[in-house]
# Entry
Amino acid sequence: METPKPAVAGADSLLGDVEEAEAALREAADRALDGEASFDAVIAADQKIEPRDAMPDAYRSGLIRQIAQHAHSEIIGMQPEGNWISRAPTLRRKAILLAKVQDEAGHGLYLYAAAETLGISREELTDALISGKQKYSSIFNYPTLSWADVGAIGWLVDGAAIVNQVPLCRCSYGPYARAMIRVCKEESFHQRQGYQSLYVLAQGTPEQRAMAQDAVDRWWYPSLAMFGPPDADSTHSAQSMAWKVKRFSNDELRQRFVDMCVPQAEILGLTLPDPGLRWNEERGHYDYTSPDFDELMRVVKGDGPCNRQRMAHRRRAHEEGAWVREAAAAYAAKQNGKVTV
Amino acid sequence: MSELLALGDDALIAAQRLSEWVSRAPTLEEDVALANIALDQLGAARLLLSTAGDEDELAYLRDGPQFRNCLLAELPLGPARGDLDFAWTMAWLLLLSSAQLLRYTDLAASDDELAAGIGAKTVKESTYHLDHAHQWTLRLGGGTDESHRRVQEALDSLWPYAHELTEGIRDRWLALVEPILAEAGLTRPADRWQPEGGRTGRHTEHLGYLLAEMQSLHRAHPGAQW
# Structure
């Protein structure tokens, strides 16, 4: 039986934004200012800063922090969903999930490459993740307890990621903007598969439906928390906005996400776990109950359900792979030696 | 179509094994590569199983004795259950993908249009899998003392299982694999013990655990759509 393919309201216009950003990027390249233009002039003219350009130290270090955190999130994010590859309920679902988790490794790769253009090495970035010096998105510190979590992550977590990341396609740093265009296109596919998978469960047996609702109940607030602390408490925001790295505030993006999800939940026939959720005619937006930011801070600081497990997994994979990386380096060195002799 | 089912089961069980590597590989590039090979194996399995019936019924509702995969495919990717060893995995992939390449090449030349089409697609993928295993066999064989020791030990442990894997194509297979081992400075293990039984449904103890995990969710919801 052909499974129904419901539309994902709101996602199409976001993908349209990605395409516009791509066109703007090309246009900006065509009317590049001369090489001597100052950093401020490039930013003011909505041009892209490229690796060769001079830039303030804080711009460089802020971008490294942000891109690295994004890359680390992709890498750690492979774990919660990877958890269900072996048990996927059909071969088609298994193939989709494998491809999705593989995409995440790919995103991690080109984000690390974007960070490397700012003068930091992959090794330093890996060490910063393993040592806990740099963070990853707290969303991945929650467990995937049922198959429906795979769908809920696709719909809500990837959906929130897209809302966060689409504006980054217009970020002032060229390599990051270009990486984000590709990432967003793939994330859009991830969101659709999640939504479609959840839709099938919501239309399925009573057990499947309960599984889907339980997953939405557990992932809704962690997804809202992905947009970060409320604007009043956000430490990096103001400078980041001035430098056109960040284009919208945390609360603006969170609202956009809520507005997108409510009609989607209605199509699914699932309930978002917020009794305070209602349309506000005056604001033209849905009112909603804020996430518990104290919980977010506890998870950020390391005390979420899976922080220790995720880090131990990553550390173990890195340590157990050390002899392989050494062997590859030793072999390459021997080969290079042969060429020069 | 029983040969296609056997090849399909090889690919399905290999995909299930390889996907254990996801998020655990020694480098990010290798994480992408191993997931990609797992995906190719899964794709081949779906095509091949579909020639024998419904892919999900075959994958999820058969018990161990009904599977026709060779024993090599179901072995853990390390010396013991739960282990994940990179040298072991590359030696396993070298033996498996070289045999798959030959089987798929024969399939591509078959008179049966469907089988020939599947063969044409899977030959391209197996060529890449074998190349990947070949390159890593060279790196591990010629890298450090530790990597050489590990890959030789893995090869010694896995070699007996290649007997069943290569039934009917042994000479062509040896012609493919022996030069790679020589190039990597590895010793070709002697042919002694020759375990078999997978093709007739007599498997190792390992298959039961693999199937229990793979089939658990599907079987918990009989008749459900996903």
